[in-house]
Design a protein that fits this description.
The chain has 88 residues and is mainly alpha-helical. Helices cover 84% and strands 0% of the residues. It is elongated and about 45 Å long.
Length: 88
Amino acid sequence: DQYVGVAIAHNLMVLLVGLVSTTVFRLPERDRRSITIETGIQNCPLGMVLTLTFMPNLGGAVITIAFWGGWQILSTWMLASYWKYKKA
């Protein structure tokens, strides 16, 4: 499905924006990591609410958002696991 690639690309972009913006503002490494993870995982609930509120008959959209949420959890878990072994 074409939306799978879009969901993955969007999430990776948001993670990158979180990391770059915290680096630009020279936040401590622990804050960079926290904000990056938070920006990467906050989009799915908003997408689900908007879809269910404004497009309740689009079952495919809900399935895409469900995948998106699973991907966000997986991607941020992988990033947190990587950072766990990299000294802050």
